[in-house]
Amino acid sequence: MPNSQTYTTFFERVKASINDGTFAKLTLAKTIGNTQLMNIYVRTIVVDSHLLLNLKFKFQQEELIENHSIDEAFFILTTYINNPFLSALLFTTEADVTMKLNKKRLASITEQAPTFKNADPILLEHLG
């Protein structure tokens, strides 16, 4: 897989933002064609004092919600990159980090000024 290093770099950024308390949310977007699955939204959740990732699969007609460990969630999310999603957007309080696939399906990572001023409140409460 030619993009595996870029995927790893991106998800390491996600993990670092969770660990340092700057994570706001993660979104998989920009589908290829007209698909049933429109987006995947990721936030943190605490279940039995364990920090998990809450994956909300937004379909055209319904939503499906799953909770997974951070590593399980990354494994699941990676399977949706390039099928059907062409971008993953990490929102932190320090920067918006975007991983995009171009027409040749090569991944790249860019950074912009942060959209969110505050981190995910559940994450902050768990770290606090």
Characterization of the model:
- The chain is of the alpha+beta class and 128 residues long.
- It is built from 3 helices and 7 strands.
- The longest helix has 16 residues, at 4-19.
What's the short version?
The chain has 128 residues and is of the alpha+beta class. Helix content is 27%, strand content 44%. It has a 7-stranded antiparallel beta sheet with strand order 4-3-2-1-5-6-7.
Topology:
Blueprint: H1 4-19, E1 23-31, E2 37-47, E3 50-59, E4 63-68, H2 70-80, E5 85-92, E6 96-101, E7 107-112, H3 121-127
Antiparallel strand pairs: 1-2, 1-5, 2-3, 3-4, 5-6, 6-7
Q: Helix content range of the residues, please?
A: 25-40%
Order of helices and strands: HEEEEHEEEH
- Strand order, main sheet: write it out: 4-3-2-1-5-6-7
Determine the structural class based on helices, strands and strand pairing: alpha+beta
Q: What is the count of helical runs?
A: 3
What is the percentage of strand-forming residues? 35-45%
Contiguous runs where pLDDT drops below 50 for at least 5 residues: none
Number of strands: 7
Shape: globular
- Overall radius of gyration: 14 Å
The CA-CA distance between the termini, in Å, is 39 Å
Largest sheet: 7 strands, antiparallel
Question: What labels describe this entry?
Answer:
128 residues, alpha+beta, 7-stranded antiparallel β-sheet, 3 helices, 7 strands, globular
